[in-house]
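The data layer described in this paper is built around a simple, fixed record for each protein. Because each token names a local backbone shape, the row as a whole describes the fold. We quote a single record here, exactly as it is kept in our systems:

***
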Amino acid sequence: MPAGEYRWITVVSPHNDNGIDLLLEPDAHQAAKDYQKAIFSDGIPATMFGVSSVEDEYNRLTNLGVSFTMKPTKMGEMTIAVFDDTCGNLIQLIER
């Protein structure tokens, strides 16, 4: 959907058109670029997704070629893993 000089883009699962929409924001503003680079270089995920099994998602995504910066790691009552989305962001998966 057009939005000025940009387009409003959301993605959804091909398995659930009525599921969660993920909005992809442009990083045209220098502050956004600097913030993205800083949190990436510090190893801070830009966002997090809850999953029923981090281990299963880790295996599935690894088999698809996704590069993880943190393998599934138990932290108290949670298990987390972090991957590089190849667009300058780290994404964390979390299982409670």
Remarks:
- The chain has a mean pLDDT of 92.
